[in-house]
Amino acid sequence: MFQNLKANDALYIIDKSAEVPSLKIGQVVNVGNPMPATPVQTPGLMLGMNQQFQITIRAKIDGQEGDFAQLLTNESVHDYGNMIIIDNRESLLSEIDKIRMKSQGEIDRYDLNKQIVVACEGMSKTANPEYAKAKERDEAIIKLGGRLDNIESLLNKFMEQQTNKN
């Protein structure tokens, strides 16, 4: 929990500001005093019984100091959107697994999405005869281009053989 951090403890930062996330390991410089977070009033309870507290942690990362504010004292992970602040290795590994699992899910959906694209192409061809003719023409042109490449390659080989004979 963030409230248990003290100077010189490790602080882990998953930087999600780029396309590919990266890990930075910082060192706690200072932990601020707990301040009340937005008050939570629950009917029937005395004021303050459900009170949450937040702190600001100053940390040194890559030689620069910076503050991480509004960290709830009873949590170990805080997501700022473009970065995740984590106070212990176990929670860090859990967050890394969440990111990995999300991307693995996208990879696993690749084949399904390819099938959807093929199905949509088929539906478009059925619904629009002009589109079907255009696609058929495009495919024929691609095939002809491939055949021309093969003929050119064969001619080049033939010309080399003729040149080597002389």
Characterization of the model:
- The protein is an alpha+beta fold and 166 residues long.
- It has two domains: 2-38 and 50-102, no CATH class; 110-165.
- Helix content is 45%, strand content 26%.
- It contains three helices and seven strands; from the N terminus they run βββββββααα.
- A hairpin with a 3-residue loop joins β6 and β7 (83-86).
- α2 packs across α3 (129-165).
- It is elongated and about 85 Å long.
List the helices and strands and how they pair.
Elements: E1 10-15, E2 22-31, E3 35-36, E4 53-61, E5 64-72, E6 77-79, E7 83-86, H1 89-108, H2 110-127, H3 129-165
Antiparallel strand pairs: 1-2, 1-7, 2-4, 3-4, 4-5, 6-7
Helix pairs in contact: 2-3
Q: Roughly what percent helix?
A: 40-55%
What's the domain count? Answer: 2
Major β-sheet annotation: 7 strands, antiparallel
Decide which structural class fits the backbone.
alpha+beta
Output the helix-strand order.
EEEEEEEHHH
User: What would you call the shape?
Assistant: elongated
Distance, first to last CA: 84 Å
What does the average pLDDT come to?
90
Query: How many DSSP H or I helices?
Result: 3
Q: Compute the gyration radius: what is it?
A: 31 Å
The beta-strand count equals 7
Strand content: 25-35%
Uncertain stretches of 5 or more adjacent residues: none
Q: What key attributes describe this structure?
A:
3 helices; seven-stranded antiparallel β-sheet; alpha+beta; 166 residues; elongated; 7 strands
